[in-house]
Amino acid sequence: MSDKKINVVIVTGMSGAGKTVAIQSFEDLGYFTIDNMPPTLVPKFIELVKHNEDTDKLALVVDMRSRLFFKEIPAIWDELETDEAIDFKILFLDATDGELVSRYKETRRSHPLAADGRVLDGIKLERELLAPLKSLSQNVVDTTELTPRQLRKTISEHFSSDNDAAVFRIEVVSFGFKYGLPLDADLVFDVRFLPNPYYLPELRNKTGLEKEVADYVMNHEESEDFYQHLLALINPILPGYQKEGKSVLTIAVGCTGGQHRSVAFTHRLAEELKKNWVVNESHRDKERRKETVNRS
């Protein structure tokens, strides 16, 4: 049996108080997450995880959708708290009745305990049923005045560790405009105004990752000016994206075919950003023209 320590967070609380945002936040922090976990299955699932080396952090949502099992919760929680192999915490999310009613009206969803009655009746019944569970919770967060971003920040402050510090990463991708914009791009930059190596026969079949092409692209005054202005734009805003709670920022650089200019720029930009950030570099269309030629 493995002797590793399992970090387990049970996410619970009032319906509409932010459990969906919370579980997404834990996933961003590297937790293995499960929504709507029946309480009786929690100990069994933890036992399985003890024998799995891939994860040691779990965040499980347990709420009134599993109300048939709620009578068994105190005994289950006692069992988890006495297990020395588990670091066990409960996060209870709450909000005022008025705020919960407002959120339900905004989403036009019915409360799980309202049946055919008023939303407020379901909220009051749920609050009564959850009172014992709230009293057991080590972390109670009132989300009445919190935006989703603020809730994410609160969860990160309470549950992230030093190993989670590098959760923010940057994806730098090159692409060809003729094949369409990357759907996940946050920032898009166009380098089609630069001299094009495609028109030089000796460079046409090479890519921007090869020195001859990169030198041709970058050894122009307008190329260097644009690159320096690009760095001056990007560097000051990256800490803001991280502070905002964004886990991935995708920067896309495009040229006509995505083979020469955008590739050279993307590679140089990625190498520079790697000095201070976690960066992944990719080139979506680098080989696209060659593949098309070979098929025809």
Describe the biggest sheet? 5 strands, parallel
Shape: elongated
Low-confidence stretches: none
Output the structural class: alpha/beta
**Overall average residue pLDDT:** 85
Secondary structure tally, helices: 10
Q: Quick one: how many beta strands?
A: 9
CA radius of gyration is 26 Å
**What percent strand?**
15-25%
The span between the termini is 58 Å
Major sheet strand order: 2-3-1-4-5
Considering DSSP H and I runs of 4 or more, what fraction of the residues is helical? 40-55%
Give the assembly state of these chains: single chain
Order of helices and strands: EHEHEHEHHEHEEHHEHEH
Structure description:
- By secondary structure, the chain is α/β, with parallel strands linked by helices.
- Helix content is 41%, strand content 19%.
- The protein has helices at residues 19-28, 42-50, 73-81, 97-107, 119-136, 148-159, 211-218, 221-243, 261-273, 288-295; strands spanning 6-13, 32-34, 57-61, 86-94, 139-142, 169-176, 187-190, 248-255, 278-283.
- It has a five-stranded parallel β-sheet with strand order 2-3-1-4-5, with helices on both faces. A four-stranded parallel β-sheet has the order 7-8-6-9, covered by helices on one side.
- Helix 1 (19-28) packs across helix 6, helix 4 packs across helix 5 (119-136) and helix 7 (211-218) crosses helix 9.
- It is elongated and about 75 Å long.
- It starts with 5 loop residues before the first strand and ends with a helix.
- 30% of the residues are buried.
What is the fold's blueprint, element by element?
Blueprint: E1 6-13, H1 19-28, E2 32-34, H2 42-50, E3 57-61, H3 73-81, E4 86-94, H4 97-107, H5 119-136, E5 139-142, H6 148-159, E6 169-176, E7 187-190, H7 211-218, H8 221-243, E8 248-255, H9 261-273, E9 278-283, H10 288-295
Parallel strand pairs: 1-3, 1-4, 2-3, 4-5, 6-8, 6-9, 7-8
Helix pairs in contact: 1-6, 4-5, 7-9
